[in-house]
Amino acid sequence: MSGTTYVYNLRDLKFILKEWLDMGKLLSLPPYAEYYDADDIDFIVDNTFKVCRDKVAVVNDDADKIGVKFEDGKVVSPESFRDAFKAVNEAGLGAGNADREVEAHLPYTIVQSNYEMLCAASLAFTGYWGLTTGAISVIQNYASEELKEKFLPNMCAGEWGGTMNLTESGAGSDVGANVTKAFPTDEPGIYKIKGNKIFITGGDHDLCSNFIHLVLARIEGALPGTAGLSLFIVPKIWVDDDGGLGEPNDVVTTGIEEKMGLHGQPTCSLSYGENDGCRGYLIGAPPDENGKASGIRQMFLMMNEERLMIGIQGLAVTGAAYLHSLAYAKERVQGRKFTDPKGERVRIIEHEDIRRMLMMQKSCSEAIRALVLKSCYYYDLSHDSEDPEEKAFAEGMFQISNPLCKAYSTDMAWLLISDAIQVFGGYGFTAEYPVEQLARDCKVLSIWEGTNYIQAQDLVGRKFTMQKGKVLTDWMEDIGGFIKSHKDKEGYGREFEVLSGAFGDMNYILEEVSAYGEGDRKEMTPLFATRILHAAAMLYCGRLIIDQALLAGEKLIELGEDHFDAAYYKGKIASARFYILNIVPQVGAIRRVIGLGDASAIDIAEESFA
Amino acid sequence: MSGTTYVYNLRDLKFILKEWLDMGKLLSLPPYAEYYDADDIDFIVDNTFKVCRDKVAVVNDDADKIGVKFEDGKVVSPESFRDAFKAVNEAGLGAGNADREVEAHLPYTIVQSNYEMLCAASLAFTGYWGLTTGAISVIQNYASEELKEKFLPNMCAGEWGGTMNLTESGAGSDVGANVTKAFPTDEPGIYKIKGNKIFITGGDHDLCSNFIHLVLARIEGALPGTAGLSLFIVPKIWVDDDGGLGEPNDVVTTGIEEKMGLHGQPTCSLSYGENDGCRGYLIGAPPDENGKASGIRQMFLMMNEERLMIGIQGLAVTGAAYLHSLAYAKERVQGRKFTDPKGERVRIIEHEDIRRMLMMQKSCSEAIRALVLKSCYYYDLSHDSEDPEEKAFAEGMFQISNPLCKAYSTDMAWLLISDAIQVFGGYGFTAEYPVEQLARDCKVLSIWEGTNYIQAQDLVGRKFTMQKGKVLTDWMEDIGGFIKSHKDKEGYGREFEVLSGAFGDMNYILEEVSAYGEGDRKEMTPLFATRILHAAAMLYCGRLIIDQALLAGEKLIELGEDHFDAAYYKGKIASARFYILNIVPQVGAIRRVIGLGDASAIDIAEESFA
Fold first, then answer.
1. Of B165, B418, B582, B594, which to mutate for an interface test with A (greatest number of A Cβ within 10 Å)?
2. Residues 6 or more apart from B245 whose CB is under 8 A from it?
3. What does the pLDDT look like over A233-291, one tens digit per residue?
4. Fewest C-beta in 10 Å: which of A278, A513, B448, B558?
C-alpha cells in the first residue's frame, strides 16, 4: 500500500447519486434532459474512477516526494504530471467543467462527485486546474464577449491556467487591505497593474503555456477597503488579437512556498509590474462616482462554489485515509481479542478500539459526503429548477450548508486522518504508508478560501439572518419536520431521541445567538461562532445520515439479507447509528458551554496570556 | 520567528515548582537534603533555559530540514548537533540524570521539568539520549555490578548511547510475538543473539562511539508470549575488560525510517547476528524450569517513566506551539474588531476567535503541565517519602495518572497544535514558520511507548482495579474531597458546579465499567476505554487547574493588583475558568455516549465496513 494505491468508495457515491438524491429529476430539467438521464451516471463515474486510478493516483507519490521546484525563475513540476494532466483533460475532468454555458455540461452534483474522486487520487495534483475553474466562472459571468472569446477556449481546454489573486502579505483574511494598484491607460478598459500577490495556487507551472490571472487591485481614487477593489484579467503572456501568444506581460514569479504538505502544488508569489510593464483588462465597469468598484462582488460570486470544493477536498482525503486504514486493519495481525486473551492472534480489525476508529472515520466521512453532495444538489436545483418555490428553498438550503461543508469537513479531516494514522501504528508515521501525507496535505484546507472562522462568521452572521431569518427557519424546519415524521420508526428510537435532543439544543443555541445580537454581548457571537458551526453541522449531518439509513433499511427489505449488496446497506445503517449515538451528543456539550457563557477568553488582559 | 526561536513558559514552571508543589518538603528528604533546597530551583531551571535557548533550540531547524541521513551503512546527523550534544552533556542535562543512585541526583520532578524545556527546544534532538536514560535505569536496577561498571559510566557521560529493542516488524503492540532468539554459549551469562528489530530510536548515530542495546529475545526452550522473553545487553562494539572498545559485535544498521516528522531523530532497523557473530549479556537469571523469563518485567519497570516522558514531550511541543502562535497574534495586524467594524485594523489577538484558540492552547497546556508535574511529584514521593502511608498513596496516584499523562497530553497535542497553525493562517502551513513542524513532530507521540489505546486499557483494565480498587477510590476521593472542601469558594460557583457535575459523570462511568466486567458485555470496556481515559483526564485536569487558580487568587490578594506578577496570576485564573467551563463539559457528553451504549462498531460485519 502506497500513496499511489487508489482507494475510493464508489459504492457510497452511487448510493447517493442513484438511490438517495433524485438525480433523475435533476437530469430531466432543461439544461440536461437532452443529453443525459440517470442511467448515464454509472458510465460517468466509472470512467472517472478509472482515470483516477490509472492516471492520477499514480502521480501522488511524486507529488509529495519530488514535489514542485523553483529553478531559474521557473516552476518545475514532476515529470509524471504531464501524462496525468493530459489524461484529466482528455477525459473531460479538467477546468472545462467550469463552463456552465456550454452545451451538454454536467450538473454540479456530478462535476463535484468527479472532483471528489480526483482529489482522493491526488489532492496536490488537482491544484493544477482547480483555480482555473473559478477563473473561468468569473470570466464567463462578468467579462465582455470579446474577453470571453479571447481567453475561455484555451482555459477550458487546459492549455492555459487560471488563478485567483486576492492574498497579499499584509492582506489575507482582511482582503480590503489590498495595496495592489491599477492605473488607467490610453486604451479603454486596459490598466497598468502594480503590486505583489502571495499564496497563488497554480500561479505558475510548466503544464500550461500561459496563465490568466484574476487580480484584485485598486484603481486610483477608488474607495479604501473591499468596496474599492476592481478585478482584472492579467495574462502572464499577452494574447494577440489572433489568439496567439505575444509579449510577456511583466508578471514575474518570485518564488514558491515550502509547505507542510501539497508539495506537488505550486503556491506562488507573483510580482505584477515590477518594470511598469504589466497591463490587465478591467472586468466590468470602473468604480462609480463614489469610488465604489465591483471587483469583490465579482470575485465572491465564485466563493461559495470554491468553498464547497474545499469541503469536497477535505472529504476526499478523509475518505482515502479511512479506506487505507481499513485495508491495513484487515491484513495486519497483532494481539489477541480482549474477550479471548488466550486465543489466536487476530487481525487488528477484530479489536474494539480499532473498530471504534474505523467507525469514526466511516460514519463521519459518509455523513460529510451526504452533506456536501446534498449541498451540490441544492445548488443545482437553485440554478435549474423550474419551480420558483423549489428554487428559492434550494438556494437557501445551499447557502446555509455551504459554510458547514467547508469548515466541518476540513476540521474533521485533521481529526479523522489522525485516527487513520493511529490504526497504522508506528507505520502510520512513516512515509512508507500513505496516511501521513494525507494529514500533511489536509492542513491548509481549514485555512484557505476563507478560514474556518470566516465560515463560522458567515454562517452565524450572514446565513442565519438571510431574508430576515427565513433561510434559517426553513433549514430548522427541514430538520425538525424530518425528525417529527420519522421519530416513531421502529428500531430507531434511541437515534431519534438523540437527534431530537440535539435539535432542541440547537434551538437553545439560536435563541442565545439572537440574544447576543440584541444585548450588550455582541462579542459572544464571534466567541462561540466556531462551536455553533460545529453544532449545526453535527445536527444536520445526523439528519442526513439517518435519512440515508432509513432508505438503506428499505432497500434491505426489498433485496433480502442474502443479496450481495446487503452488506453495504447494513454498513450504512451502522454508520448512522454510530454517528448519532457517538458524535451528535457533542451538540449537547456545546449547548452546555454556550449556556455557561464563559467570556474568560475575551476578558483576559493581553499580558496575562503568557 | 523560526523553529530555532526558543519559547518556553518559565513562569508557569516556576509557579509549579516554587509555589504549587511542595518542593521544599521533597528536597528535605534524605536523597536531596544534603545537596539542595528550594532556593536552588531558580538556578537549576534558569540554567537549563539558557542551554535550551542558546545551544539546543538553534539546531531545531537543522533537525527538520537537514535531518538524519543513512549513507554507506552509517547514520549521519546534522553537523550542528555535535555542539548541542556536548552542551547538553556538559550541563548535566543528558542521560546521566537517569542514574538515580549517584550522589546529588535531582528529584524526578526537576529532571522532567528540565526535560520539558529540552523537548520544547528540539524534540527530535532529545532522541539522542532519551532512550539512553531508560537503558541506564534497567541496567542500574537489574544488571550485575560487573555489567554496571562496564557500561554505566560511559552511558551516563553521553559517550555511549543506549536503546530499547522491543519492536519487530510483526510485533509492535503485541510484544509477545517477538521472534528474536538467544542461544547459550560456553561463557556463562553470554548468549548468541539472532533477529531483527525496527523502530529503534537513537539506534545508531554519529554522536556516540558505541551503542548499548537492550534487546528482548527468547532463549530456546522458553515459553511463548511475553513470559518467555529475556532481556540482553548487546553492545554494538564489544567492550574489552579494560573498558576499551574491541571487536564489532555483528550488529548492523540496515536502514532508517523516512518519517512525517522528527526528521533529525534516527529511527533505525537493526539486524543482530546476521553472520552469527552477535553476543549479548543476559540480564538477571535465565528462564526458570517452566520456561518463564524475566525480560518483560525488567523492560516494563521503566515503562511508566518512559510514558511520563512521552506525556512531557506532548506538553513541550504543545506549549511551544502556543507561545509561537501567541507571539504571532500579538504582532500580526489583520481585520477590524467584530464590535467595531469601522474602526482601525487591529492585531489578531484582538479577535474573539483567535482568543478562543489561544485560550484553548493556554488552558489545556497549563492543565497538562499541572497533570504531568504533579505526577512526577507523586513519583518522587513514592520513592523517597519516609511516611509509608504517604508513599503508598503517592504510588497509587502516580499509577493512575501515568496513562492520563501519556495519552491525554499526546492526543491533545494534535488538536492544540492545529489551533496554533490556524492562528498563523496560511503562514502556519509554510515551513517558514515553526508550527507545522511541531504538528509533524508530535504525531508519533500517540503511538510509541504503548499506543494511546494501550494506555486506556492500562487505565481501565489495570489501574482502576489495582489493589482491589483502592487506588481508584483514593483518586476519586482526592477529586471529590477537593470539590467538597472548595465548592463554596466565592467567585467560583459555576466552576465547581461544572466540576461537580463531571465528578458525578465519572462516577456513573465507573459504575458502567464495573457492570461491563461482571456482565456479558466485556467488549464494551475496550470499546469505550479511550473515551473513559479522556473523561478521567479532563476531570482530573479540571481539579488540578482550579487548585492552581485558588492559589493564584491568594497570591493576587497577597501581592496586590499592581504587582508585576499580577498578570500571571490573573492568567492562571482565566485558564482555570476557560478549561472548566469550555472543556470539562465534554465529560458529560462522554457519559451520555457511554449511557447510550451503542455497540454498532462491534456489531457491524467486516464486509459492511467499506
1. B582
2. B209, B210, B237, B238, B239
3. 999 999 998 889 999 999 999 999 999 999 999 999 999 999 999 999 999 999 999 99
4. B558
Residue A16 to residue A10: CA distance in whole angstroms: 10
Tell me the catalytic residues of B: 449
DSSP letter for each residue of A290-349: TS---HHHHHHHTHHHHHHHHHHHHHHHHHHHHHHHHHHHHH-EEEEETTEEEEEEEEGG
Domain positions in chain B? 10-68+76-132, 142-298, 460-610
C-alpha grid cell, residue A232: 482584472
Rounded CA separation A135/A141 (Å): 10
Q: Which of A335, A428, A574 sits opposite B174 (nearest CB)?
A: A335
C-alpha cell belonging to residue B106 = 535531582
Q: Where does residue A518 rank: exposed (0-12), middle (13-18), buried (19+ CB within 10 A)?
A: exposed
pLDDT digits (tens, 9 = 90+) for B257-281: 999 999 999 999 999 999 999 999 9
Spatial separation of the C-alpha atoms in residues A547 and B16, rounded to whole Å: 52
| Cβ separation A356–B447 shorter than 8 A | no
Cell of B97: 540524570
Chain A residues with CB under 8 Å of B462 CB are none
Do A526 and B334 count as a contact with CB atoms less than 8 A apart? no
Which A residues in the span 409-438 are in contact with B, Cβ-Cβ below 8 Å? 414-415, 418, 421-422, 425-426, 428-432, 436
Q: What is the pLDDT of residues B526-581, one digit of tens each?
A: 999 999 999 999 999 999 999 999 999 999 999 999 999 999 999 999 999 999 99
Query: For testing the chain B interface, which of A429, A453, A565, A591 should be mutated: the one with the most B CBs within 10 Å?
Result: A429
What would the grid cell of residue B251 be? 550488529
Closest CA to A358 of B409, B513, B532, B600: B600
Residue A190 bridge partners (DSSP): A281
How many inter-chain contacts (A to B, CB under 8 Å) are there? 277
Cell representation of residue B302: 521503566
Closest partner CB to A609 (pick from B351, B358, B589): B358
Q: Cβ distance A206 to A76 under 8 Å?
A: yes
SS3 B201: strand
CATH 3.80.30.20 corresponds to the domain A134-293 = no
ipTM above 0.95, yes or no: yes
Clarify whether A449 is annotated catalytic: yes
Average of pLDDT values for A396-413? Answer: 98
Given an 8 Å threshold on Cβ–Cβ distance, is A432 in contact with B522?
Answer: no
Query: Where do we find the cell 533550540?
Result: B57
Query: How far is C-alpha A528 from the chain's CA centre?
Result: 23
CA distance B357 to chain A (A): 9
- What is the biggest distance separating any 2 CA atoms in chain B, rounded to whole angstroms? 87
Report the distance separating Cα B507 and Cα B266, nearest Å: 44
Grid-cell match 514569479, residue found: A253
Nearest CA to B280 among B218, B212, B180, B193? Answer: B193
Question: How far is Cα A122 from Cα A262, in angstroms, rounded to an integer?
Answer: 9
In the structure grid, which three cell numbers stand for residue B9, read together? Answer: 513558559
* Angle formed at CA A135 by CA A130 and CA A141, multiple of 5 degrees: 130
Show residues of chain B in contact with A170, CB under 8 Å.
Answer: 333-334
Cell of B13: 514552571
Domain B142-298 has CATH 3.40.50.10860: no
| CA–CA dist A309, A586 (Å, integer) | 26
Whether the predicted pLDDT of B368 surpasses 80: yes
Residue type, A551: L
**Interface mutation target, options A355, A365, A569, A573, chain B, most CBs of B under 10 Å:** A355
- Cβ–Cβ contact B355 with A under 8 A: yes
Say yes or no: B579 contacts chain A, CB-CB below 8 A: no
